[in-house]
Amino acid sequence: MGVAEVFTAFGDVYLKSLLSTWLMTIVCFAGGLALGILATVLRVSPIKPLRVVGDVYVQLFRNIPTVSLLVIFVYALPYLGATLSYRTCLLACVILVVSSFASENFMSGINAIGVGQIEAARSIGLTFTQIVRLIVIPQSLRTTVLPMTNLLIATLLTTAMGSQVPLTPPELTGMVNYVNSRSVAGISAFIVSAICYAGTSVALGFLGNKLDEKVRIVR
Amino acid sequence: MSANVSMRDALYEAPGPKTRRRVAIGTGVSLVLLVALIAFVIRQFYINDQLNPKYWSFFTRWTTWRFLLRGMFGTIKVALMAGVIAMALGLLLMLGRISPNKALSAACHVAIDLFRSLPSLLLIYFFFLVIPKYGIKMPAFWMITVPVALAASGVLAEVFRAGVNAVPKGQTEAAMALGMTHGKITRKIVLPQALKIVIPSLVSQLVVVVKDTTVAYVVSYPDLMQNARVLISNYDALVSMYFVVALIYIAINYATNQFSIYLAHRQGTQVISRTSENPI
Amino acid sequence: MPTETATPVIELRHVDKHYGPLHVLQDINLSVAKGEVLVVIGPSGSGKSTMCRTINRLETIDSGEILIEGQLLPQEGKELAALRAKVGMVFQSFNLFAHKTILENVTMGPIEVLHTPKAQAEAEAMELLRRVGVDTQAAKVPAQLSGGQQQRVAIARSLAMHPTAMLFDEPTSALDPEMINEVLEVMVELAQQGMTMVVVTHEMNFARRVANRVVFMADGQIVEQNTPDEFFDHPQSQRAKDFLDSIKGH
Q: How open is the CA angle B126-B130-B132, to the nearest 5 degrees?
């Protein structure tokens, strides 16, 4: 079966699968950013226990392999009184992992600001909340465009973990299994999925670079 | 003055009396919440009978750990072999990319971007599902090692390139002034310095490789995760086993990360990450 | 106290500060009158920068009192921010907001703190930028300007808050030699217009030209203070003599 035949036979499923991968990527990245912001707020708060919780949270989820987390969500949580759907498990795991890296990116964005900027802001009479709103958030966001672009691409690749649980429609990696168990597609199914991943990554990378050029802060 | 102060401290003023009181209250409240959270988790374990000694007692047996250690050894074997292959391939791809030969450079550029933009799982399926259809039989070890290595090689090529770019321009110019060729400059001047710069980054990339090996059960290779699954069916103790295994992975990766930070700190370089690699 | 003596703009009473075992400020007593230009000099590590930074609480003190226009320096919150708005500060490393244009750097304080309407804040900012000679650069970002230009913008940023006093913490130390004068010119002009100024500097010619009083610090103490002519021509203490000799050698 060639690439063209794979398209005629499985085109519909493939389109759904691609859209599903994109959607999961967007949901996981957005969720990861939101949770990452929360973790970062904890990590920079002046309250020691919250800092420790934030630091531990990030170390746990940036070091745990996603599969290891996924099996806990899918197989262990039901024993502890929480049964979630496969898709919820997958999304939750990817979000947790992505959030830890998002927080690391935010932290390095904050670290890049420099004490002098904060002191100058204080010296013109800005309050703490004004400094956070006018200096800390805009500067750290603008310096994290490239790392966040890479994180978005990594999120896309991490959704491939969806192939380890039954999903309908399957995402792009699961499609290789799906197609191969229904016909002798051989390398074609792999090629189609690979093109979808690579195309998406290249497009995201391009957009990220463009955005970075626009907002990058020259220090 | 304010040197050596981390930014997260520099965000705050030296506290006045009101702030100190607020921080003290916040500390108290957050400690209570934290204890409540931990209590809740322990309670969930307890009411679901997951604290029952029968789920934990086999961890006191040497045979359990011997089997897990054997799995860990499998994980490390795959990770190191994949790491070595990825380094060699990554270095070649990078050398191709910076070579003056336009066609070679473009081909390597495409290969690097391709490997960087494919999930390692997709590559594993390629070796597990696709290749056998063409009558090629590979041992499980290589079915997991090769795709993990390929996925890492693209990232490592970029890490190496960042290392090469970090070598001061004056080094190359000085060598050119001596009449050295491009190849010779790369081999004798640039590479030795670049390799030294990227050592901490290579170590930190091992974390990514170790994470990628955890799906070795797909090809039935006996790594830590796969052996844990065997123990789970033997002892009927799923929850405790999956949590312990997760902690082992976290410990390995945390230690690896800290080691790379230590190396970077010692030689005064930075761990090249994030802007040039896929962190997960 | 005679009633006609106006309240000093800045007053430090028995100020002490330690960094661990280091006693960096030792019983500092100082008052700066309205319109006075005070130049603080001394070897590095003498505590002169630290003292300057305590005046708007960028550094805390261990004991003693700091008063601005007779009012005790607040320790935190909105009160502290409001007081800082009245005391301008110019840093050694300029510290312009890297993500804002030159114009936005100058208008941020008036708009956010003084709630000046944007159009008015911009008009005033342009006028200030013209005064310090960088109005043509208003649309650029800080990194596109030379050090001297950036420091003049920093002065304009402080002036936009209509401060009652200005602190200068080694404003020319990070500048290339050919840019020092363009910044000093602006400062001389400010002094001549009657601005109350505390200037920590190594520029002895500037001190001689515009200072009403020179304060010499060493090892965290004020060793000597006098008019510039008296201080430079007849230093009283051995430390001051040694310091002045070491500078002349250059």
A: 120
Tokens of B245: 């295994």
C84·A142 Cβ contact <8 A: no
Nearest-neighbour CA in chain B from A80: distance (Å): 6
Q: What are the residues of chain C with a beta carbon less than 8 Å away from any beta carbon of chain A?
A: 56, 58, 77-78, 81-89, 91, 93-99, 108-109, 112-113, 141, 143-144, 154, 157-158, 161
Please tell me the pTM assigned to this model. Answer: 0.91
Do A214 and A142 contact (CB within 8 A), yes or no?
Answer: no
**What would the pLDDT profile of C164-200 be if each residue is shown by its tens digit?**
999 999 999 999 999 999 999 999 999 999 999 999 9
Assess A8–C contact: CB distance below 8 Å, yes or no: no
Whether residue A62 contacts residue A97, with contact meaning beta carbons closer than 8 Å, is answered with yes
A79–B207 CB contact, under 8 Å: no
> Model ipTM?
0.92
C178 touches chain B (CB under 8 A): no
> Which sign does the torsion angle of CA C175, C177, C178, C181 carry?
positive
Cβ-count burial of B102 within 10 angstroms (0-12 exposed, 13-18 middle, 19+ buried)? exposed
Residues of chain C with Cβ-Cβ distance to A126 below 8 Å are: 81, 108-109, 112-113
Q: Which residues of C112-132 are buried (b: 16+ CB within 10 A; e: fewer)?
A: bbeebeeeebbebbbebbebb
B4 close to C (CB below 8 A): no
| Cα–Cα distance, C18 to C21 (Å, whole number) | 7
Closest approach of C212 to chain A, Cα-based (Å): 25
- CB contact at 8 A, B151 and B124: no
The residue-averaged pLDDT of B195-203 equals 91
Instruction: Report how far residue C7's alpha carbon sits from residue A118's, in angstroms, rounded to the nearest whole number.
Output: 31
| pLDDT at residue B221 in the model | 93
pLDDT of B279 > 60? The answer is no
pLDDT digits over C87-132, tens only? 999 999 999 999 999 999 999 999 999 999 999 999 999 999 999 9
Put simply, the chain A residues between 1 and 40 with a CB less than 8 A from any chain B CB are none
DSSP C113: T
Give residue C2's pLDDT band: very low, low, confident or very high (50, 70, 90): very low
Contacts of residue B6 in chain A, CB cutoff 8 Å? 111
Q: Closest-CA residue in chain A for B123?
A: A190
Cβ neighbours of residue B39 under 8 Å, at least 6 residues apart? Answer: none
DSSP C92-111: TT----TTS-HHHHHHHHHH
For C53, nearest residue in chain B (alpha carbons): B1
Q: Quick one: which H or E segment has residue C13? A: strand C10-19
Nearest residue of chain A to residue B208 (CA atoms): A65
Q: Could you count the other beta carbons within 10 Å of the beta carbon of residue B33?
A: 13
Nearest chain B residue to A123, by CA: B13
Q: Report CA-CA distances (Å) from C197 to A19, B44, C48, C82, C89.
A: 65, 65, 14, 19, 10
Residue C152 clears pLDDT 60, i.e. is over it: yes
Q: Do C49 and B14 touch (CB under 8 A)?
A: no
Chain A residue whose CA is closest to B15: A46
Main-chain dihedrals φ then ψ at residue A205, nearest 5 degrees: -60, -40
pLDDT 10s digits, B89-123: 999 999 999 888 999 999 999 999 999 999 999 99
pLDDT score for A1 = 67
Greatest CA separation found in chain C?
A: 55
C47-69 confidence digits (pLDDT tens):
999 999 999 999 999 999 999 99
- Supply the pLDDT for residue C210: 92
CB–CB contact C161 A135 (8 Å): no
What is the rounded distance in angstroms from the CA atom of residue B68 to the CA atom of residue B58?
12
8-state DSSP, A74: I
